[in-house]
Amino acid sequence: MTEANTLGQRLPDEVAGKIISMVPFPHLLKARVLSRPWSSEFSASPVNLTFQCQVKTVCSKWETYCPVYISRDCWLTGYDHVNDRWQKMFRLSYFADARKIPRFIRYPASMSGALLCGVVNSDCSPVHGTSCHTNIFVTNVITKDWKKLPSRPDMEKPDAVQIHASGECSYTVMVLSHPDPPELKEQSLRLITFQIYESTHRTWTLMELKLHDSILLVYQDAIYNKSNHKFYALYRDVLRSLRTDIAAFELIVYDNVSGCSTRIQLSVPSIRHIDAAYTTGLVECDGDVILVLVTDPMIYSDGDSFDGAIPPWDPMWGVICAFLPSRLPASSVLILKFDQETHGLIPLALGPPCTVNDAYCDRFTSNNSCIYLASSKHNSPVVIYDMREKEWSALSPTCDVCSGNIFSFQPGLDPFAVV
């Protein structure tokens, strides 16, 4: 059959669109490359708006892939829960500076539906002490469109990058940074910047927050809660932990609607600071903000506590843990919910019920009611906690993993979003 006689040429757009919309994901991706007319059905031209609406209706039922890694050969590889296997989905070789993907995955990144956002390149001066300026990229992994976002008011390297769909074919990017300007170096102040990019306006807005008594706040993680439009940044409060001998944190909440921020002190009395060598993370699960604490294997490597001189907030702590035997002891994961009204932490679960060998959890994501605890280490199982069923389980590991972020990929969440 010649290309002129293919389905896209013989049938009206509405009929061709209806046929293609019935093709399940990820087989839909293979259908795109059958011929040029087939591929043109996926373009964003007004002629194909009917097709896009039909695809969106069908793809809203597509299963979510979670967790999703970026592999060494630049593929997005996710777990297919329907077929119980790891699935290679999208290759990022089309992306600008694809050769820098290994660097990209070491920087903060996030995913919302088909939109992947992160730091790809960085323009660093060789002069010691000069700031490192970074650019933010957004790409639609289904349509393979990408763009570099306009320069931000503050081009410092981000500590957190969050993207979320904010409407029909629109998105918002939030960037958290901790610059250290000269005027603050001699003072007991901490400067935190929130920068928000709205795709509809194509502009950045900047909010600076100067914090007193925050020199010993160590940044841990950040998430954006879509249900209440708030950005949450978690810090380990080293000074208060030393004073109170318990695991102390501080949560900075930025309201994207009002533009106001709030500082909230948190404590985990069940964990003494002197024993608190743990990895922390934030996830948004069923609309709730969840704090995950995973006791580092150094505590239980041989059943005894580590008798070393390196404190858990020292950067070398993570380096040492990386060379420890990968093993997730029973009851070493504590899951807590942040109460929006009382601003306290509510314990939800302590697990897993038994030791998981070859597992080391330092990456966190969620989908619906499930929290996924994964690792950047090769051949590490993924531990899952289902908040609704209150059950623990584990996924088989994948060997094709790069050190970096993990995501939850929802192919049906506005797959044609324009970047």
From TrEMBL:
SUPFAM superfamilies in the record: F-box domain
Pfam families: F-box
Source organism, top-level taxon: Eukaryota
InterPro entries: F-box-like_dom_sf, F-box_dom, SCF_F-box_component
Residues covered by the F-box domain: 10-40
Descriptive protein name: F-box domain-containing protein
Species per Swiss-Prot/TrEMBL record: Marchantia polymorpha (Common liverwort)
